[in-house]
Amino acid sequence: MDQSVILQEQVREAYAQSRALHIQGSGSKHFYGRSVRHGEPLRMRAHQGVVDYEPSELFITLRAGTTLQNLQEQLAEAGQMLPFEPPFFGTEATIGGTLACGFSGPRRPYAGSARDYVLGVQLLNGQGEILRFGGQVMKNVAGYDVSRLLVGSLGTLGVLLEVTLKVLPRPEQELTLVQELPMAAAIDQMNQWAAQPLPVSASAWYDNYLYLRLSGATKAVEAAGRKIGGEILTGADAFWTDLREHRHEFFQGDAPLWRLAVAPASPPLPLPEATLIEWGGGQRWLRGHQDAEALQALAAKHGGHATLFRGGDGSGEVFHPLSPHLLALQQRLKKAFDPRGILNPGRLYAAL
Amino acid sequence: MAGDGGSGQDAFLDALRAALPDDALLIHEEDLHPYECDGLSVLKALPLAVALPHNREQVQAVLKVCEQFGIGVVPRGAGTGLSGGARPNAGAIVLSLARLKQMLAVDTRNRTAQVQPGMRNLAISEAVRPLGLYYAPDPSSQIACTIGGNVAENSGGVHCLKYGLTVHNVLALEVLDASGELLHIGSQAPDSPGYDLLALMMGSEGLLGVVTECTLRLLPIPENTLVILAAFPSVGAAADAVSAIIAAGIIPAGLEMMDQLAIAAAEDFVHAGYPRDAAAILLCELDGSEAELQVRLHAVENLLEQHGAGSIRIARDAETRLLLWKGRKAAFPAVGRLAPDYYCMDGTIPRKRLAEVLEQIAAWSAEYGLQVANVFHAGDGNLHPLILYDANIESQLQAAEAFGQGILELCVAVGGSITGEHGVGVEKLDSMCAQFTPAELAQLHRIKAAFDPEGRLNPGKAVPSLHRCAELGAMHVHHGQLPFPELERF
Fold first, then answer.
1. Which CATH architecture has domain A4-169+329-337?
2. Which of B111, B190, B447 sits opposite A333 (nearest CB)?
3. CA–CA min distance A140, chain B (Å)
4. Do B424 and B485 fall within a single domain?
5. What does B15-35 look like in DSSP terms, one character per residue?
6. B151: nearest CA in chain A?
7. Rounded CA gap, A164 and A141, in Å?
8. Coil vs helix vs strand at A249
9. Final residue of a domain: which of B66, B81, B96?
10. Are both B366 and B282 inside the same structural domain?
11. So what's the ipTM on this one?
């Protein structure tokens, strides 16, 4: 159902009264970002439904409150998929929340991220104006790329109403291979494979085992599998789904979860606890109460950044600090979209 | 020196001279002429001066002097742009990044290259080829265009359906803002904290910052590649074949269509062996392992035949492949030989609307009395109609422009965009009024102001003023009463 008029009215009122709103989908990603919630909820769930889907044009346009479940079922019927393989983190997860968080799954380093697949958006800015940017076509350089800017902005720049995503055919065949390898050798191996024209679609390392998924035409997957070697993992779909959804044993328990994004070929990092590695080495997970500054310094040294992803003290900053120039620029950008600071204030950074 | 002179201007030029070595500043009128336009040569203006810095520090110095004197800056790469994005503004300087053209580093383990903005697109792939790697986006102008210009336009190329645009292949940028402050945007990691400024910089046409360094993602060179050339009795049949290929779950590495006039022009020019009697041809590139190619080739051949392909040629060896692509890549200059001038359009449309859009273009072509050759990135819906005209006949230039504007408005009407990859520049400012509402344009202006509050970077480009669109709207309403009789045919 199209709720955009109702949502627009709520944002306009909040703007007129300079009242904060916190944007709410299903609440499945409530844990992500800073824990502050100001003002009343702006409920997005009823604003759902597929608006336009053309499998042969490789795009789908849908309202932000549409569940990932519903979206993926429709795509699967046409033999297609979301290439960035997003985690749900809850059965009712919406596409709006997924894009606001900018979450991508195991296929990310090989197929691209959530933002890579966004072609266009309709949004409500902080003044309650309904605006459209991008479109349903793959190439479009008219105006700045607002569509992709919104991905990962945690609702602080605008309320995502509608989005158009590029979709791709599902691979004909998938195969997961396992090899026993220590961390350093596994990181090397993942990056060597990525430098060759192999149909790799996911990689992970945990507890001395390296997992590699191949996807594509059956013959190509078989040929690559023979070249790479290792044992075939049974129940591979469940393995990758559990990893994506953080149901793997590494993610159990309440200890804080840290995410380090680094240059993929970075060597094993001197971390105090066990690590789970994904994305060819580019995404590394760590548990426990850690010294945030030390982790940030370590991630920065390897070309990246550290996030307190889940748990711990969410009232402070949870994302990597920005340089003063970049923070000032992002504050001006926030103001350009949301002059009275009413949309999810403080969810991303205290100053945004 | 161009412009009116004056002591303020003299003081500005003195300050620039003090900030740069002698060989890095052009101020005499005869030296400025080579910079009076970009690839859209009908739009010309002389800048106040041209700065040709050798390094980032000098770029920074230029920006600081311009800030001090409130002077506008038009950044420029190779000047191959087709929308007037690098056309100088009177009273502003041109900042050429052409001398920052070094490859600074290649990280083979992480498969990235760190390059300066003036490096040519093709030179990047050539430099890393011995490592088995390449840089994927390959716009037709890749032998000349620079990576900085690619960032400014979010360039694609014939392989972007499978391998993405510039936005998908750049990991990080070093950018100077309008005040010359250094910003590091993006990173070596898969993502960065805060807003995705990297996405925002792509295609921003030099309005948000000046890129001084790019970190690029490199990909492994595919194991095998082949190109299929298929001839069709109608454009509609070719378009249906494209949809069928994609519906079958095949994403070709490249998928290009040309119509009869473009085929004939290309054939005369490069003798690629295109079938002259075809109404349309498709060029379909497949890549992958030998095993995969066998399966895919068989499937694609069947689909092409089912959709009425008259003849099918398969090029496996590099020489024949390159020859088939050469015809396509040389389509613009080839068409350029058919008439004294041509006007290259760059709309995108949903592919399923192709046949009706081409029919309308053909009808307008007859109405305006101007021939059109069509080149189409069929996989991604990017249509390049090339309108042939003679600029020496004044009414033809105006007719070509009105015709072009009509095509772009048609693209918007069928759900597409006024520019797929050439950018708005100066050329499509009016068309932007058709694509965006005043509230959307105001939002774009506020984004610009967040980066460049004084509006000194590439002033007046890419996003039209609300005033301009309001005037244009008024003009459309009173269409029949315009003082330009040529426009009545529109």
1. 2-Layer Sandwich (3.30)
2. B447
3. 4
4. yes
5. HHHHHS-GGGEE-SHHHHGGG
6. A141
7. 16
8. helix
9. B96
10. no
11. 0.97
CB–CB contact B440 A132 (8 Å): yes
pLDDT along chain A (352 residues), means of 10: 96 98 97 96 98 94 98 97 98 98 98 98 98 93 97 98 97 97 98 96 98 94 94 98 98 97 98 96 97 98 98 96 98 98 98 96
In-domain check, residue B2 = no
Chain A CB within 8 Å of residue B467 CB: no
Which B residues, 96 through 135, put their C-beta within 8 Å of a C-beta on chain A? 107-112, 132-133
Contact A191 B381 (CB under 8 A): no
The fraction of chain B above a pLDDT of 90, given in percent, is: 84
**What is the distance between the alpha carbons of residues B4 and B17, in angstroms, rounded to a whole number?**
19
Q: Which chain B residues touch A330 with a CB distance below 8 Å?
A: 194-195, 197
Closest Cβ–Cβ partner in A58, A145, A330 for B203: A145
CA distance between the termini of chain A: 31
* Average pLDDT, integer, range B447-463: 97
Q: Which of B332, B353, B384 is the last residue of a domain?
A: B332
> Which CATH number fits the domain that encloses residue B279?
3.30.70.2190
* Continuous segment of H or E residues that includes residue B262: helix B260-270
Per the listing, tokens 């007129």 go with: A16
* Cα-Cα-Cα-Cα dihedral sign, residues B159, B162, B167, B172: negative
Q: What pLDDT sits at residue B45?
A: 96
- Are the Cβ atoms of A141 and B377 closer than 8 angstroms? no
Number of domains in chain B: 4
CATH number at residue B422: 3.30.70.2740
Amino acid A58 reads: L
Q: How far is A8 from chain B (nearest CA, A)?
A: 14
Average pLDDT over residues B397-426: 93
- Residue B350 near chain A (CB below 8 Å): yes
The distance of B200 to chain A (nearest Cα, Å) reads 5
B215 with B237, same domain? no
Q: Find, among B243, B249, B311, the residue nearest to B280 by Cα.
A: B311
Q: Alpha-carbon distance B9 to B132, whole Å? A: 51
CB contact under 8 A, B419 and A58: no
pLDDT at residue B278 in the model: 96
B194 vs A129, A172, A330: nearest CB: A330
Q: Does residue B438 sit at the A interface (CB-CB below 8 Å)?
A: no
Same domain as B86, residue B44: yes
Question: What type of residue sits at position B7?
Answer: S
B191 and B144 within one domain: yes
Chain B residue numbers touching A223 (CB-CB < 8 A) = 289-292
Do both B349 and B477 map to the same domain?
yes
pTM here is 0.95
Do B326 and B381 sit in the same domain of this protein?
no
Contact state of A142 with B418 under an 8 Å Cβ cutoff? yes
One domain for residues B426 and B359: yes
pLDDT of residue B317: 93
Residue-number span of the structural domain to which B128 is assigned: 103-220
CA B374, B287, B373: angle at the middle one, nearest 5? 5
- Does the distance separating the beta carbons of A263 and B110 come in below 8 Å? yes
**Cβ contact B463–A283 (<8 Å):** no
- Closest by Cβ to A141, choosing from B154, B247, B439: B154
- In which band, very low, low, confident or very high, does the pLDDT at B474 lie, cut at 50, 70 and 90? low
* Phi, psi (rounded to 5 degrees) for B202: -70, 125
Amino acid at B423: G
Contact B417 A55 (CB under 8 A): no
